[in-house]
Amino acid sequence: MNTGVNTGGVQISRWQTFADPLELQRAATRIVLESAQQAITERGAFRCVLAGGNTPRVLYRSLRTAVADWRAWIIYFGDERCAPAADPSRNSRMASDEWLDHVAIPCRQIYAIPAELGPEPAAASYANTLAGVGTFDLVILGLGEDGHTASLFPGATWEGSTTWPAAIPVHDAPKPPPERVSLSPARLSDALKVVYLVVGADKRDAVAAWRAGAALPASRICPPAGVDILLHL
Ligand code: 6PG
């Protein structure tokens, strides 16, 4: 299903640099918990999209001991690698190991991308899963050194179109594994709040290009309220 949302708009970006990576992670924890509290108070549920990769591990581990109304949390994933569900390389496996297996979020409210099915069937399945889901309350994203985010890589076929299904198949990803599923720019932009966690000197060039206005995948996420980018480079 095409969301029909064209994220060709200009990204509003707010940059925050942290000298101490632990301070960045503490800020990220605050953002997640405050977003959750507000969403649950106002709408009775907190719909959160998780990032993969390694950077979010510290954040996820910090949430193990958080005091929260976990029954109202609903978890989605921004992307997934095509590997067996229990494979250690899976983003959902990482989030479960670091956090989700340690808190009382109901399993039925954790929506992993069935990437073990392969890119096309998994993207179609997840697009169906998302069909009834409205605006996300919070989307957490990372940044690759080539400017990718989620599994939206530069120069991929998705860049050519202006509308996308909510979830798209990815082949030939330069970051292994080559086969993945990613939420589309449009779907990732349909969020009340989007926060990027960017840690590592290897991201400096991508951040510089992004701040200079380069059309990177990370700059294609254009939620109405803009994006917050937490940096420790
Ligand atoms: C993945 C992620 C990817 C990640 C960036 C940053 O599947 O790897 O979705 O987009 O967020 O590559 O990865 P690090 O946090 O490990 O630097």
Please tell me about this protein's structure.
The structure is a single chain. By secondary structure, the chain is α/β, with parallel strands linked by helices. The chain has one domain (13-232): Rossmann fold (3-Layer(aba) Sandwich). Helix content is 28%, strand content 18%. It has a 6-stranded parallel beta sheet with strand order 1-9-8-5-2-3, covered by helices on one side. Strand 2, helix 2 (56-63) and strand 3 form a beta-alpha-beta unit. The longest helix has 23 residues, at 21-43. The relative contact order is 0.22. Bound molecules: 6-phosphogluconic acid. Residues 51-55, 79, 81, 91, 142-144, 148-151, 175, 200 line the site of 6-phosphogluconic acid.
Q: In percent, how helical is the residue content? A: 25-40%
| Gyration radius, rounded | 16 Å
The shape, in one word, is globular
Number of helices: 6
**Based on the structure given, which CATH architecture is correct?**
3-Layer(aba) Sandwich
Structural class: alpha/beta
Task: Outline the biggest β-sheet.
Answer: 6 strands, parallel
Average predicted confidence as pLDDT? 94
User: How is the largest sheet built, in terms of strand order?
Assistant: 1-9-8-5-2-3
Enumerate the spans where pLDDT stays under 50 for 5 or more consecutive residues. 1-7
**Which strand-content bin applies to the residues?**
15-25%
Order of helices and strands: EHEHEEHHEEEHEHE
Number of strands: 9
Compute the number of structural domains. Answer: 1
Enter the CATH topology name: Rossmann fold
| Amino- and carboxy-terminal Cα gap | 38 Å
CATH class: Alpha Beta
